[in-house]
Structure formats: C-alpha cells, structure tokens
C-alpha cells in the first residue's frame, strides 16, 4: 500500500507545494485508489511541510516543483519525490502514477 500526497490549489496541482491551500492524500493498493483525504497544511515555513507530509504517512509526493532543501527532507523521511508533474486534478495525477503513465518534466521551482 502507498500513500500519495498531492499539493492542491484551486482544485489542481499547485505549481509550488509550499504555497497550496490543501493536500490530498490517496491510499492506493496496486492500481486502485482505496481512500482519499483532504487536509489543510501548516503555515509555510522552510522545512515544516515536508516533515508534516511524512508525519501524515505519505510514501510519495507528486509535485510541480520544490526547492532542493525540501527534496532532501522528504528523502531523509522516506518519502519518494516526483517533481515536474503537469497541472492537473489530483485524481488524474494519481491514476496516471499508479498506472505508470505519469510524465514529469522540469522542476517548476527555481530555489
């Protein structure tokens, strides 16, 4: 079972995970979504959100972009980072991820 975090702004993937209004967490088994929860993140401050996401039990995060410090914190806490995802609904992104068809590009964050 995997728990996939997606940072969301206005119903779609937020381009920078630290500036979103909510996180959608999807519990998956194989190619099936078993459960989804929506949680409001803590106030953005360097290093806070990656630790918080890992405390929610996430095993992966799909993001548009994030800084190297955040990537390092996620990795240190056992969360696999997938950056450069397209701006789309969280459900579509997770479906593509579990089916192995998610295409990621450049990190949308430059810090």
Describe the structure.
This protein has three helices and six strands, in the order ββββαβαβα. With 111 residues, the chain is an alpha/beta fold. The protein has one domain: 2-Layer Sandwich (Nucleotidyltransferase, domain 5), CATH 3.30.420. Strands 1, 2, 3, 4, 5 and 6 form a six-stranded mixed β-sheet that branches. Helix 1 runs parallel beside helix 2. The termini are far apart.
Describe the structure concisely for a colleague:
Helix 1 (48-55) packs parallel to helix 2 (68-76). The protein has one domain (2-99): 2-Layer Sandwich (Nucleotidyltransferase, domain 5). With 111 residues, it is α/β, with parallel strands linked by helices.
Keywords:
Nucleotidyltransferase, domain 5; 6-stranded mixed β-sheet; alpha/beta; single chain
Domain module count: 1
Structural class by SSE content: alpha/beta
Return the string of H and E elements.
EEEEHEHEH
Mean pLDDT: 93
Largest sheet: 6 strands, mixed
Helix content: 10-25%
Looking at how many chains there are and whether they match, the oligomeric state comes to: single chain
Count of helical stretches = 3
Cα-atom radius of gyration: 12 Å
Report the CATH superfamily. Answer: Dinitrogenase iron-molybdenum cofactor biosynthesis domain
The level 1 CATH classification is Alpha Beta
Give the distance, in angstroms, between the N- and C-terminal Cα atoms. 32 Å
Query: DSSP strand (E) fraction?
Result: 25-35%
The coarse overall form would be globular
Number of strands: 6
> CATH architecture, please?
2-Layer Sandwich
CATH topology: Nucleotidyltransferase, domain 5
Low-confidence stretches: none
């Amino acid at each position: 079972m995997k728990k996939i975090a997606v940072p969301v702004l206005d119903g779609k993937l937020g381009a920078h995970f630290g500036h979103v209004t909510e996180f959608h967490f999807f519990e998956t088994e194989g190619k099936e979504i078993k459960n989804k929860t929506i949680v409001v993140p803590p106030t953005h401050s360097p290093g806070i959100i990656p630790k918080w996401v890992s405390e929610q039990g996430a095993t992966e995060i799909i993001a548009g972009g994030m800084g190297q410090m955040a990537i390092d914190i996620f990795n240190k806490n056992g969360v696999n980072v997938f950056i450069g995802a397209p701006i789309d609904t969280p459900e579509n992104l997770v479906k593509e991820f579990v089916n192995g068809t998610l295409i990621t590009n450049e990190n949308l964050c430059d810090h």
